[in-house]
Specification:
Number of helices: 7
Strand content: 15-25%
Oligomer: single chain
Radius of gyration: 19 Å
Helix content: 25-40%
Order of helices and strands: EHEHEHEHEEHHEEEH
Structural class: alpha/beta
Strand order of the largest sheet: 2-1-3-4-5
């Protein structure tokens, strides 16, 4: 593979990952360790996944329109000495070359880990703007009532994001319903399933 391609690996054991890393790097490619590094090379990155599990690295690829390939694509490319055609049989998800959430604005609702973790970066890399505030953080052990929610708008005018993305649908019981009035609500599992199925356009995002 004479052209230097950046790769992300996901779903493999440490032994499997080490073998794939060796195959990639000994043929001129490079393996990135984090989404942050991948976001800097988003136009070229290829995700190699063990299966179609929706890991953050797979979601990253779907968000930015990059391909998710099987390990067999790497093996065939190594044998050929260059990146082979990404045939359907070698792909888990094909490239789209577009950012999935361009122009969208989301509010994340969930635990602190959810608000600040890798999924936020996935959405941002996909073109979305994320609105966050400390009061949108919920302790997962306290489901009955959450803290008072901060106003989203400025000068008394409510802001209408494209959607509120809930880490868990049960969090609705801890929120003031008035805050969500007229807004789209999406559970994390529903959104990521739609990403994998290519059905985000059917979710009714504004």
């Amino acid at each position: 593979m004479p052209r230097v391609l950046p790769f992300l690996l996901t779903g493999f054991t440490s032994t499997q990952s080490a073998k794939i890393c060796d195959d990639v790097e000994s043929n001129g490619g490079k393996v990135l360790e984090t989404l942050e590094r991948a976001s800097e090379e988003v136009k070229d990155v290829v995700v190699v996944a063990k299966d179609n599990t929706r890991t953050l690295k797979v979601l990253f690829a779907l968000s930015v329109g990059r391909p998710v390939v099987k390990r067999s694509w790497v093996e065939e490319s190594v044998k050929a000495g260059f990146p082979v055609e990404m045939k359907r049989s070698l792909l888990l998800w094909g490239p789209r070359n577009e950012r999935l959430f361009a122009g969208q604005e989301f509010v994340l609702v969930g635990t602190t880990a959810f608000l600040t973790g890798g999924f936020k970066e996935v959405l941002q890399c996909g073109g979305a703007k994320i609105v966050t505030a400390p009061t949108w953080s919920f302790d997962s052990k306290k489901r009955k009532r959450g803290p008072a929610l901060a106003e989203l708008g400025e000068n008394g005018e409510p802001r209408k994001p494209s959607a509120f993305i809930l880490e868990d649908a049960r969090l609705l019981g801890a929120c003031d319903p008035a805050v969500f009035s007229g807004c789209k609500l999406l559970e994390y599992k529903v959104l990521t399933k739609a990403m994998a199925q290519g059905n985000v356009a059917n979710l009714g995002l504004s």
